[in-house]
Specification:
Length: 354
């Protein structure tokens, strides 16, 4: 997807150029008022910028220079808002059928697959008043997918839910990732949602794109606020290689070596995301003793930044992955850290994003 927009609204100016992947989750992040929702409204055709170019796959949805413009109802997209916006007088089935009026009847099989994917088959005869917050949002997602969109837009779909209902719906969003070859643009303020869902991240600031790239690259850039926070982290995609049932340890393999994480058994060969907080990484100049070798990996220093009082954030290369470590400035001095130096990174704890 390619998008260029220039829109002035009073004193606020949205001015950006974007190229996003043709599949997976592209997460739009940034502080309130940075222009995230305005960007999504431009993509949907709900705003008319002074300059606009929007191309999805091989179709130009809007080109202001040539006078081309597809109205919102002509754009093959689905839109999920913060609130479910279900019709209260219609059942779940009727809400989904309302969206199906724009597609051919032969798409019934695909609709049934979406209903199964989101696990709402048992809800079809209920009215929205009888649904939980998480169930309402799953139905709203199904209704958006019912039109067989080429692009799914999701504007903070979990913002109105409490923590329990967020945990309820996140697994279904991850299933969308793996089972539907559909590009999703997803707005969120939540670092948790970003690390669990994002394949690509766009960081916005005052109507402009501050950074755009793969999740791991954006998370670990020292010049960006994500790496400068106290909850700075790295995310690896790892493969389950073995399980130690006696100690309930998963062995996880990636390009930089093998990590062990306490966890229930998972199928060998399955891929999972692993989140490692920078504060949980310590650095050493010498290889560990045999008994201490678990989760100690050879690494190379890529960059360093002194930020929080008394602390240094270090960007490391571990295999093909990027890892952050937050250590005290005294430790950095004692290790005589320098860019290019080879050291050992000990990962004290890590979490599988499940």
């Amino acid at each position: 997807m390619e998008a260029h927009f220039h829109l002035s609204l009073g004193s606020f100016e949205l001015k950006l150029e974007l190229q996003l992947p043709a599949s997976g989750f592209s997460v739009i992040a940034g502080s309130s008022g940075s222009g995230k929702t305005l960007l999504m409204r431009c993509i949907a055709g709900l705003e008319r910028p002074q300059f606009a170019y929007c191309k999805v796959k091989d179709t130009v949805w809007e080109d202001s220079l040539r006078g081309d413009y597809l109205a919102t109802y002509q754009r093959p997209l689905g839109y999920v808002f913060q609130e479910s916006c279900l019709f209260p007088h219609l059942t779940v089935q009727q809400n989904i059928d309302y969206g199906r009026q724009r597609i051919r009847l032969k798409a019934v099989r695909e609709i049934e697959a979406v209903i199964e994917l989101l696990n709402i088959g048992q809800l079809l005869k209920r009215y929205p008043a009888k649904l939980s917050g998480g169930e309402k949002q799953r139905v709203a997602i199904a209704r958006a997918l019912a039109v067989e969109p080429q692009l799914l837009l999701m504007d903070e779909p979990l913002a109105a839910l409490d923590q329990a209902h967020k945990y309820e719906i996140l697994p279904y969003l991850r299933r969308l990732q793996t089972e539907l070859q559909l590009p999703v643009i997803y707005i969120t303020h939540s670092p948790q949602e970003m690390t669990q869902l994002a394949d690509h991240v766009v960081l916005m600031e005052q109507g402009k794109v501050r950074a755009s790239g793969e999740l791991q690259a954006v998370l670990t850039r020292l010049d960006l606020p994500l790496a400068q926070s106290q909850r700075a982290s790295s995310v690896f995609t790892v493969e389950v290689s073995a399980y130690d049932a006696e100690f309930q340890l998963l062995y996880l393999q990636f390009s930089g070596g093998v990590l062990t994480v306490p966890h229930m058994s998972l199928p060998k060969g399955s891929q999972v995301r692993l989140q490692i907080y920078a504060r949980d990484v310590s650095l050493h100049s010498q290889p560990p003793m045999a008994l201490e070798a678990f989760n100690s990996l050879p690494a190379q220093v890529l960059a360093m930044l002194d930020q929080a009082v008394g602390y240094t954030t270090v960007s490391l290369q571990v295999g093909r992955e990027l890892l952050l470590a937050q250590i005290t400035r005294k430790t950095a001095s004692l290790l005589q850290l320098a860019v290019g130096q080879y050291i050992y990174a000990e990962i004290k704890t890590a979490a599988i994003l499940s």
